Amino acid sequence: EAVDTKNNVLYKINICGSVDIVQCGPSSAVCMHDLKTRTYHSV
User: Fold this and answer.
1) InterPro entries from the entry (predicted)?
2) β-strands 2-4, 9-13: how paired?
3) Which in 7, 9, 15, 20 has the greatest CB count within 10 A?
4) Which residue range forms the structural domain that includes residue 10?
């Protein structure tokens, strides 16, 4: 995990589908969680 406190964003590394976040999908290498809007995006 990595936190960007300036932009209120949390990044999670998805090694071999280890992060179970439906919005990012199993093929996503990095999943971003926007802490302001509480949404997830594959990056």
Assistant:
1) Man6P_isomerase_rcpt-bd_dom_sf (IPR009011)
2) antiparallel
3) 9
4) 2-42
18-38 residues labelled b (16+ CB within 10 A) or e (exposed): ebebeebeeebeebbbeeeee
Distance CA 41, CA 30 (A): 9
Q: Residue 40's CB: how many other CB atoms inside 10 A?
A: 19
Give the chain's domain count: 1
**Which pLDDT tens digit goes with each residue over 5-38?**
999 999 998 887 777 888 888 888 999 999 999 9
Tokens encoding 23:
């919005």
Tens digit of pLDDT for each residue in 1-14?
A: 899 999 999 999 88
